[in-house]
Amino acid sequence: MRTVDRPAHITAGVSGHVDHGKTSLVRALTGMETDRLREEKERGLSIVPGFAYLESERGVIDFIDVPGHEDFIRMMISGATGIDFLLLTVAANEGIKPQTREHLHIADLLGTGKGLAVITKSDLAAPGDCGRVADQIRDFTAGTFMEGCGIIETSVSNGQSIHNLTALLEQQLLDPVERIDTGRCYLPLDRVFTMPGFGTVATGTLRNGALATGQEVDILPQGRRAVVRQLQVHNREEEIAYPGQRVAVNLRNVDMSHIARGDVLASPGYLEPTRLLDVELRLLDGPDAPPKYGEMIRVLFGTCEVPAKLRILGDGEAQPGSTFPAQLDCGRAVAAPVGERFIMRTLSPAKTIGGGRILDNAPAKHRRSDRRAVSRLTRLASGDTAEVIRELVWATGARGMDISDLARSVNLAEDELAHRLDETESVFIEAQRVMSADAFKALREQALAEIKEFHKANPLRQGQPLEDLRARLGDGIDETVFRFLVDHLAVEDLVRTDKTLVRLRDFDPLEALDAGDKKIAGEIAGAFKAGGLQPPELNEVLQGNPQRKRMYRFLTETGELVPLHNRETNRTLVFHRHSIDGMVHKLQQAFPGSAAFTVADARKLLDTSRKFAIPLLEYLDGLRVTVRIGDRRKVL
């Protein structure tokens, strides 16, 4: 993956229990109001994620103010999926509460890397309360990504405390989470609305890849194609938006009925709608009974929420705190990249019980007892990029895998993927496909065994027809892979091949003949070889003898004799391969480069008649040894 070179940027999620001062804190930091809905203002609590930002000389901090009430946890999760830094708020007068715990668990499951604990409402605390809450936070965050995090006391009525928090946040811009750009856009949508004069506008946190004005995007999972008409970042029109930024996308000719919150904008072809997802699932510790095989659960990722049937893979039962491979059978089509984090909740009562990451977004349906699937997913979950690539390529067997498909499957830019492939000992099929070394070795050995078996069953035939060999290698071998295989065997000097046949290097069909047949075959071949480019008549050589006719067919099948048709006389002319090779050599010497020649020129050079010259030249045209241009030819 390549890093994006742009001003420092952080997407900070502001989370915590309801009424612990998140919205007020963001307002004090940015001067912006994140509660935009009338119901939010009337009830005094956040219902949907709110957005604000803080700009400084060091960079930009985007704030996502997530709802704290337990009734709106799903909205909290849709906001938290885009964050790389957590501001965990804890009110000084209340301490750790249920949603404080759930929010930290969710941020941990979503892979958030850094965080800062903010004790809010310090002005309402009794003496010593802030110290006790700080101790609670240290105990509470132990064993999580926030263990040992900074803790700061604040009050929105104390300007100095807000200034101190701002300074701490700006310091984080000196070491922001590294953003990546795989070259493929992924934008989960959290709002969709219309604007007079513009039409449909969709907003979200750009998770991967850059997005540019005029760019085509897929609207998923519907599968519609759209064009970006305009982009805004922080209320300013921009030509390009980068990973991590909050972005508003004005889409050309897209009706509101064709797009909704929870949908995805993605680079064309990057993601495909699917109902099956292979995942690595981690359950939270707790007294609650873990989910069972086949249980319906609720899955949340990006800004999407979907019911799904859980298929636990392997022999064991799920246990609290355990991590294991599973397959999700979603109730409707979804679209998400490999590596995307998700949260799993029970249907009723709704409660967060675990989460994980997507390992394969285009899997086959697995049986629970499928040990190969379990082993494969275990390797995919290993975190070893080379091992993941090796596993994905190996699974395609002799079909191989297109580089572009592999890049999507591992969420890497193609240039980075090429570097990683060097670590896997994969075999490149031309420039855009790759096959595992083991699969290619097996295919190579199978091909040699098939050719050997053909020779054994057909000792008098020159070689095995290429299409016959391809059919025997299986349905998964397409033309590109097969041609690469045959060329490889030829380069390794293991086989001899022409456009139609292939034989083992050491195979000699003459060895299968008895002494009498060898003698007659030698006589026939010798007669045509002696005739050169003015060979004898076929009937004169064969003398009407059935045995000689049989040996003649044998010699044409082995390629030693080449029968050609003279259209002017409607007769068959037969030339020895040695004579034709000599003719090609003379033409190459006499007419090098782009030099052209006529039939008369060739006749004179070869000391033969028109009767023989024309069929020979037409034969060379068919082999692309020569090319005809009007009444002249050139040697290629």
Number of helical segments with 4 or more residues: 19
CATH topology-level fold name of the largest domain: Rossmann fold
CATH superfamily membership of the largest domain, which one?
A: P-loop containing nucleotide triphosphate hydrolases
Structural domain tally: 6
Helix content: 25-40%
Gap between N and C termini, in Å?
44 Å
Shape: elongated
How would a textbook summarize the main sheet?
Answer: 8 strands, antiparallel
How many beta strands in the DSSP annotation? 35
Poorly predicted parts: 37-48, 68-72
Q: Can you identify the CATH class of the largest domain?
A: Alpha Beta
Radius of gyration: 36 Å
In percent terms, what proportion of residues is strand? 25-35%
What is the average of the pLDDT values?
85
Strand-pairing-aware structural class: alpha+beta
What is the CATH architecture term of the largest domain? Answer: 3-Layer(aba) Sandwich
Overview of this protein structure:
This protein is α+β, with helices and mostly antiparallel strands. The protein folds into six domains: 2-172, P-loop containing nucleotide triphosphate hydrolases (Rossmann fold, 3-Layer(aba) Sandwich), CATH 3.40.50; 180-266, Elongation Factor Tu (Ef-tu), domain 3, CATH 2.40.30.10; 282-379, Elongation Factor Tu (Ef-tu), domain 3, CATH 2.40.30.10; 382-435, Arc Repressor Mutant, subunit A, CATH 1.10.10; 439-510, Orthogonal Bundle (Arc Repressor Mutant, subunit A), CATH 1.10.10; 513-635, Arc Repressor Mutant, subunit A. The protein is 33% helix and 29% strand. The strands form nine sheets. Strands 9, 10, 11, 13, 14, 15, 17 and 18 form an eight-stranded antiparallel sheet that branches. A six-stranded mixed sheet has the order 3-4-2-5-6-7, with helices on both faces. A six-stranded antiparallel barrel has the order 19-22-21-20-23-24. Strand 5 (85-91), helix 4 (98-109) and strand 6 form a beta-alpha-beta unit. The model is unreliable at 37-48 and 68-72 (pLDDT under 50).
